[in-house]
Design goal:
Two copies of one chain form a homodimer. Chain A is of the alpha+beta class. The first copy, chain A, is built from six helices and 13 strands. In chain A, the strands form four sheets. The first copy, chain A, has a five-stranded mixed sheet with strand order 3-2-7-8-9, with no helix packed on it. A four-stranded mixed sheet of chain A has the order 4-1-13-10, with no helix packed on it. The radius of gyration of chain A is 23 Å and the shape is globular. Chain A starts with 8 loop residues before the first helix and ends with a strand. Chains A and B meet through helix 1, helix 2, helix 3, helix 4 and helix 5 of A and helix 1, helix 2, helix 3, helix 4 and helix 5 of B.
Amino acid sequence: MRDLNEHNITDAVLESFAATPNPRLLTIIKSLVRHIHGFVKDVEPTFDEWLYAIQFLTRTGQISGQSRQEFILLSDVLGVSMLVDAINHRTPKGATETTVLGPFFVEDAPQFEHGDDLSNGTPGAPLYVDMTVAAASGEPLSDAVVDVWQSDSEGFYDVQRADLTGHNLRGRFRTGPQGELRFWSITPTAYPIPDDGPVGELLEASQRHPWRPAHLHFMISAAGYQPLVTHIFVDGDIYLDSDAVFGVKQSLIDSFPEQPAGTGPNGRIMDAPWRKLKYSFGLTPL
Amino acid sequence: MRDLNEHNITDAVLESFAATPNPRLLTIIKSLVRHIHGFVKDVEPTFDEWLYAIQFLTRTGQISGQSRQEFILLSDVLGVSMLVDAINHRTPKGATETTVLGPFFVEDAPQFEHGDDLSNGTPGAPLYVDMTVAAASGEPLSDAVVDVWQSDSEGFYDVQRADLTGHNLRGRFRTGPQGELRFWSITPTAYPIPDDGPVGELLEASQRHPWRPAHLHFMISAAGYQPLVTHIFVDGDIYLDSDAVFGVKQSLIDSFPEQPAGTGPNGRIMDAPWRKLKYSFGLTPL
C-alpha cells in the first residue's frame, strides 16, 4: 500500500476496511468510501476548498448543543432527512404519512390531561385540537402516547428561548378509550430554521430562504405499531411549496377552519375567533 | 414541491439549489446532493443509524479545537485527504511527490538559523538533515521558506503535550544561496494518530490500527512555485505498508543511514551513533 494515486486509492481504502467484523458496518463504510471518493473525483476540490469543507463541518459540530442540532438542520436542507424518512416509511393504505422529526423534539415533555391547554397563556390565536389515533385498519388505539410540540407565535420553540427555563408549547398525552384526544393550544405560525450558523450560510449562498410553513409536530406511539413522527400543516401558508426541509405532504395539510367567537368546546367562552383542527391519525403495524 | 418521496426528492433538492449564483459552488452542491442521496439510497439507513451518523459528526466537530482537528483525521483515514492531494499534484518530472498536511501544522513556528537544533534537548537519536531545494528543472532555489515539524520520540507533537506551553520540534528556515539547508533534530518515530475520539472508534470497529510510519514533515514555498507539502519517511518502519492515512510514497522513503560516534558535522562531538538525512527537494512551477 504505497504510491497511491487518484486511480488506485479508492480500492486501497476499501481493502483497508475489509476486516470489519460487523457486516452492516462494512456495507455502510464501503458505500460511504465509494460515494465520498466519487464526489471528490467529480468536483476535484482545491486544497482551499477541502479546508473550507473541513472547517464548515467543524463549525457545524461546534455550534450544536443542548438547544440546537446543526447537523440535523444540514441533513434537513439537503433533503437527506426526508429521504431517510421516505425509505423507512413505505406506509400502507390508511396510515398517516410521515415527515421529519426536526431538531426541537425533547424527551421529557411534561404530562397533560385531556382538555388541558399547552399554551400556558402564550399569546396567539387559540386552537382546539380534536384528534383520534387508530390503526391503519381503522381500529381505535386507546392509551397511545402522543407528544405534541410547536413554535410560538413569533416562530420560536421553547428550547430556543433564552428567557424560558421550563417547557412551553409541548406536552405528552395519552389517548382515551376510543383513541380520542382533545386539547387547547395556539395556532402555529411559519418560522425560519436557525440561519445564523453554517447552514444559514449555505442557504444564503444558494439564494434559498430558511422558512418552514406553519405546522404542529406529532409523535405518536402505541404497542405493536411503528412510532409515527409527522406534522400537520396549516393550509394557505405561503411556504407550503418551498419548505426549507422538503417536508410537506398534501395529506398532512389541514385548513384549521376559523370558528366564531362565542361559546366554544366544553363551554369555554371565546371572546375572539378561534381555530379548530380535526384529524384522524393512522398507525402502521410493526 | 409537495409529496416528495424516495424517487422524486433528489431532483427537487437539486432544483431548490438551481439559483445559486456562484457556478463553482453550484457544481459542488449538485455533486454533493447526488452523492449523498446515492449513498442513502444504497445503504437505506434506519432512523437510528441516521441519528448515529448525526451524533458521530457532531462529536467529530466538538472534539476538535486548538490542538486537534478530528475532521482532518476523518478525511485522512478515509483516504480523502490523499485523494485531494493526488488530484491537486499531478507533479512533473523532477518534482518531489506530495503527501498529506496532517492536523499538526501550525502557522507561527519559530524562526531558526542554519545549523540550529530543533530538538531543544528533547531525548531522541540525533539527526542531521542536509537538504537542498531546487526547481523541478534543477535550478537551485535560494531564500525558499522551509517549515519542518515532527513528533517526539514518544510519538507526540508539541501541540499534543499539555505540559508544553511553547513550540518544540518545529521551526521555519530559509534556504541559502545554493538552495541548501542543514540543521539538527532527532530521528522521528512511528506514532498512532489520536484514537480516543470518533475516528478511533471507526478504526477500532474496522480492526484497523491507528499507526503512521516515522516521518519528518516539510512544507516548502518559493516565489513562482507551488508550495510543496510532503513527508520524508524512515525506511524499514513496520507501518510503511499500512499507514493509517494512506500517505506513503516510495520516492519519499529514505534510509536515514546511521553514522558512527565521533566528530560529526561542524566539529560537533557525537558520543553515540547518529543518523543523517540527505535529500533534494524539487518544486513544481506555478
